[in-house]
Amino acid sequence: MKQKIAYLISSLFTVPMVALLVFTIMWFDNSYKNFNGNFYYYINSIFFFTIIPLCAYIVARSFPKFKAVGREVERKLAFVFGIVGYLLGNISLMFMKKPTRAMVGLYLSYLISALILAFVNKVLRFKASGHACGITGPIVAINFIAGIKMIYLALLIPLVMWSRLVLKRHDTKQLLAGAATSFFVTLIIMIWIY
Fold first, then answer.
1. Residue 18 near residue 138 (C-beta atoms within 8 A)
2. Is the torsion defined by CA of 50, 60, 88, 156 positive or negative?
3. Which of 34, 38, 50, 104 is nearest to 82 (CA)?
4. What is the per-residue pLDDT across 20-51, written as a single tens digit (0 to 9) for each?
């Protein structure tokens, strides 16, 4: 039962699903302040930070050569699709009439955190957690954007970390490295922007 609950939590709080949650909170909290009241800006965020990254899981499970290799290829594809989406999302800001501070801050936080995590994983060969990174930074950001009233979302961080430990996908050091990466990147960017 514990394994099933951990798997459910881990699946619900993948990086793209957390992005969907955070951008949706931003829309409903104050669409004008966070997206200039422009629904296209909200959809743009969902496209680049949820839909493109989710495609990694579809590709990993649709092609037999990827499916045969298993979880490790899915993880690599998640990084590639995520970084491509984040990079394109940041480029899209240059074509918007007036992107908001919230969008710029969150878009940059995702991109820089993902690039650092990719470096740590690929070059330093340390398996820092994408799940821990993908839940911590956005929760820091939403507390800058929507205010301290969102602090309760911080309860999701240990919950996601617990699920990754139970599933034996990461150890404590890997989880803390992923969380610390996005915590500090997002904190610095949000202080700079706000």
1. yes
2. positive
3. 50
4. 999 999 999 999 999 999 999 999 999 999 99
